[in-house]
Amino acid sequence: MNPFLNIIQKTDKKVIIGLTDEVKALEIIHRFQEQQNVLVVTNSLYEANTFYKLLQNYTSNVLLFPMDDFLTSEALAISPEFQYKRLETLYTLLEDKKSIVVTNLMGYLRFLPNKKLFQKKKIHLKVNDSYDMKKLEAELLNLGYEKQSIVNKTGEIALRGFIIDVFSLSFEQPIRIEFWGDEITSIRLFDVDSQLAIQNMQEVFIYTNTEFLTEEEVPFSDKKQKNLLKYTEVSHICDYLENCLPIFINFQDIQTGYQNLQSEIFEYKKSIEDSSSQQYMHKFIVPNNSLYLSDFEENIAEEEILRKKVLELDSFPRTPKEIILLLESYLQKNKKVYICVENRYSANKILETFQSSRIVFTNSENYIENKVNLIVFKMGS
Questions:
Q1: Which of 172, 201, 171, 196 lies closest to 184, judged by CA?
Q2: Which pLDDT score is estimated for 366?
Q3: CA–CA separation, 202 vs 198, rounded Å?
Q4: Which of 69, 206, 244, 302 could form a disulfide with 123 if both were Cys (CB 3.0 to 4.6 A apart)?
Q5: CB-based burial, 286-324: b 16+ in 10 Å, e otherwise
Q6: What gap in Å lies between CA 45 and CA 296, rounded to an integer?
Q7: Cα end-to-end distance, the chain, whole Å
Q8: What b/e readout covers 27-61, taking b as 16+ CB neighbours within 10 angstroms?
Q9: Separation CA 346–CA 199 (nearest Å)
Q10: 21-34 vs 45-56: helix axis angle to the nearest 10?
Q11: Is the pLDDT score of 368 beyond 70?
């Protein structure tokens, strides 16, 4: 039997209390493998990054959907890096592959364009096709690209005679589209520094560079995410994940964060003398099928709570002798002691380093009493 099953066993409880962050990550992976797409929601961006990195240790199918805090995004400017990361995540979700998405509260509340519209808003170009250059320029500007004299970074376009350069998030290098009249004569990837062609291409898809997408023309000054609701039906990050299980990390913190956010929005509107009832983002709604992984008691019915006790070592001994003494103390207190490693090479290194008769290489089905059982452990095994 898997030694972690007593920690991440299947349960219908809505709340699990007493897990360390590492074991919370194992619980998330377990739900992901057993069930469906998963959306992990944290209060802060720092926590979102922490869980994103933890989950990357177990699967490559984890995506980050980060969003700036309210005042930064509204009064100053959103981070281009965060915007590109969100767009990359949305592009990946269009492929309908099973995924874990990790976001913070602000990402969870963000207005997003309808998934079908997001999928539709791309430009398809092929060599020898006819395409009006002015129309292409207008479409690129509508998709959030900025016009520059020369492209240097993602999200920029440049026009020179019968050439349009585009640095799309779809490619690691910019693309150069050459025309003869309205006919596309060549499409090439090129190096941004040397401006030299790298690779010829027969066709490309250029995806949006903005999350503000509508079917109609919108004045540039109105293209703020809070105004998206005025022009189109908005979606939620959950809408991009089919059959989604939302998992909230420390729900009380998230609720407090939402209350603080409401106060922040109120004070901001007062400072700019905005008396309108305009929404800046989605209201905080929790789906019925949600799971809560918490460090402390949640205000939820007792029958919905599963309590665990997983301890994290404050400091681990550094010398082999100290480690052996610690393992000996574990053996005196516990019937089952495991050291779990990711491969047989790591197991061999431990056996070679300690050379202790108390440590034996085995597996979770063949537990040996009064020994430290060294096993290779992988999620799903």
A1: 201
A2: 79
A3: 14
A4: 206
A5: eeeebbbbbeeebeeeeeebeeeeeeeeeeeeeeeeebb
A6: 20
A7: 10
A8: bbbbbbeeeebbbbbbbbbebbebbbebbeebbeb
A9: 43
A10: 60
A11: yes
How far is it between the farthest Cα atoms of the chain?
83
User: Tokens for 339?
Assistant: 């050291």
Average pLDDT over residues 305-320: 69
Two tokens, residue 200: 């010829």
pLDDT tens digit string along 337-361?
888 887 888 889 989 888 888 899 9
Structure tokens at 254: 């998230």
CB-facing half-sphere around the CA of 271: CA atoms within 13 A:
9
- Euclidean distance between CA atoms 321 and 227, whole angstroms: 64
For 85, what's the count of Cα atoms within 13 Å in the CB-facing half-sphere? 18
Residue written as token pair 């990357």:
56
Pick from 264, 258, 338: nearest CA to 6:
338
Residue with tokens 């404050």: 314
- From CA 244, how far away is CA 234, in angstroms rounded? 18
Distance CA 182, CA 188 (A): 17
Written as six digits, the tokens of 40 are 């992990």
Phi, psi angle pair for 301, to nearest 5°: -50, 140
| Sign of the Cα pseudo-torsion (92, 229, 39, 294, in order) | positive
Give the separation between CA 313 and CA 316, rounded to whole angstroms.
6
Place of tokens 């003494």: 325
Between CA 112 and CA 237 the distance in angstroms is: 7
Structure tokens at 18: 């007493």
**Cα distance between residue 275 and residue 261, in whole Å:** 17
Please give the pLDDT value at position 381.
44
Contacts of 315 (CB under 8 A, 6+ apart): none
> Residue for token digits 């290098």?
173
User: What does pTM read for this prediction?
Assistant: 0.82
Instruction: Check if the beta carbon of residue 17 is closer than 8 Å to that of residue 306.
Output: yes
